Amino acid sequence: MIQLTNLTKMYGDFTAVNNLSLSISPGEIFGLLGPNGAGKSTTILMMLGLAEPTSGKVRVCGVDSTRQPLLVKRRVGYLPDDVGFYEDRTGLENLLYTAELNRIPPAEARRRARELLERIGLKEAAEKRAGTYSRGMRQRLGLADVLMKKPEAIILDEPTLGIDPEGVRELLQLIRSLSRDEGLTVLLSSHQLHQVQQICDRVGLFVRGSLLALGTVEELSAQLFAGEPLVVEAEIGGDGSPLAAVTEALASVDGVLQVVSAAEQPQLVTVSCSRDVTASIARAIVGAGMELLSLSKKRYGLDEIYHRYFEGGKRHDRAV
Ligand SMILES: Nc1ncnc2c1ncn2[C@@H]1O[C@H](COP(=O)(O)OP(=O)(O)OP(=O)(O)O)[C@@H](O)[C@H]1O
Predict the structure, then answer these.
(1) pLDDT grade, residue 312 (50/70/90)?
(2) Nearest CA to ligand 1 atom 14
(3) Pocket of ligand 1 (CB under 6 A)
């Protein structure tokens, strides 16, 4: 449904999107994720035919967006991060105006608008002026607006921005159920991984114009943290700091790279290993007469992805 092939966009010497290849299937909900300035909006503009790629190809709904931008616009719904409505017209009137622009016959337009307003939870507010809507209500009206013309795919740029947590939850569930019920392909961009990952079938992590990883959130963490040392955490009973004793006990365990503990939690000893030697660690600690309260493998997940890539932590330069 959406096919990007070696897509690159330069602004002068600056590469905003670097050789991006991506394929999104019909009915899929795909999250294009990345921190501010990653190149998400630039990619979306190229998909919509609103920006010309420096090189590479972009096809949406089988149409070359660069060559036939008007055709793409007819088939794809686009929700920008801040939707413009006629503030002094009601929600319903705004939808009817969109219908008119898309040459939808009046009776059908009215039926569809009412149906959508109910679906998005704005039935009661249908006759209120859009200028009085909250940010969350505006985004939901925006969603109804893009659905008026029955698009095959919708592209949402930062749809959850500025909405309170309950509003975010409602909006995301709405996007998911619309996609499922109508077989709609959804591409959404966000720098809020925690929020959107729950509804995305797959995500692509985009940093400084390059796609660093692609897949489900689990696959993403496996790709991003492959080659990292395995970390095992051991909780040792008793008073005082067991660090010296654990270090000595593990000195002969092949595969152990480093043994550390934090001053504020001396009983919790963190062991970095080049491979999974959890069982040997357990044997060595117990064999040295210490009380092993717990032993667990630390899994890299959303928190680490978030910290490392979205909050400006250490950056990987490996691209897929
Ligand atoms: N018209 C332009 N001219 C020059 N540089 C641009 C232009 N548009 C975007 N950029 C630069 O390209 C990079 C990517 O911008 P883009 O808006 O695509 O990122 P983004 O991931 O959508 O970020 P945000 O979440 O902040 O919108 C940024 O460094 C931005 O400053």
Answers:
(1) low
(2) 39
(3) 11, 14, 16, 34, 36-42, 191
Instruction: Provide the 3-class DSSP secondary structure of residue 296.
Output: strand
In this prediction the pTM is: 0.78
Closest CA to ligand 1's atom 25: 36
H or E element that contains 181: helix 165-182
Within a 13 Å sphere around the CA of 116, how many CA atoms are in the beta-carbon half?
A: 26
Task: Please tell me which of 33-42, 194-203, 208-217, 252-261 the model is most confident about, judged by mean pLDDT.
Answer: 252-261
Query: pLDDT tens digit string along 167-213?
Result: 888 889 989 998 998 889 999 998 888 888 889 999 998 888 999 88
Q: Which atom of ligand 1 is nearest to the CA of 43?
A: 18
**Contact residues for 182 (Cβ-Cβ < 8 A; gap 6+):** none
- For ligand 1, atom 28, which residue shows the shortest CA distance? 37
230: tokens are: 């395995």
Q: How far is the CA of 36 from the centre of ligand 1 (A)?
A: 8
CA distance 314 to 122: 43
Mutate to test the pocket of ligand 1, among 9, 11, 161 (most ligand atoms within 8 A of CB): 11
Return the pLDDT at 316: 44
Distance 42 CA to ligand 1 centre (A): 6
What is the longest distance spanned by two Cα atoms in the chain? 82
DSSP assigned state of 299? P
All domains of the chain, ordered by start, with CATH? 2-224 (3.40.50.300), 230-299 (3.30.70.100)
